[in-house]
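__Protein archive entry__

___
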Amino acid sequence: MQFFIAASLLAATASAASPVFNVSKFAASCAPHSSLCDYSFGVVQASAGESTPVDCSAQVVSDGSLPAVTDGTCKDSSRTWTITKNDDGGFTLTVSQAVTPSTNLKGTFVAPASDISKEDTGASSQEKYIGSTDFGLASA
C-alpha cells in the first residue's frame, strides 16, 4: 500500500512538472541604431504529440530595451503569446491556446534579468536575450 501511494505521488509530481508547450529557437533582440525589436520562436503543444513547431513572431517599436508584447501571434495557428516585463528586468513569456470558448491552455516561462544583455553601440544601446533558446512552458 505504501508503495502504491509513493508511486501515485511520484506520477502526480512528474505530470505536474511536464511542460504545457515546448519552445524552440527562441530569439529576442533589438536592432542597433533602430527603434525595432524582434521576437521569434517555434512552439509545440507538448501533450498533443506535435512535432512540427508553429512559428511565432513580432516586430515591436522600442527605445532599445526588449519591450512588452500584448498581442503576439503565431502563423497559421490560433495560439497567441505575450511578453510581460518583470520588476527584476527580466520578462515572462506566456503562450495561450483556446481549448473551449471559455477555457484557454496557458504555459509560461520566466527569463531572469541575467538572461538579457545590453550592448552599447555609440549613441544607442540595445538589449538581447542570451538565455536558453529551447525550453518548456509550465502550466499557468
User: Anything to note?
Assistant: Helices lie at 2-17. The CA atoms of residues 18 and 40 lie 23 Å apart.
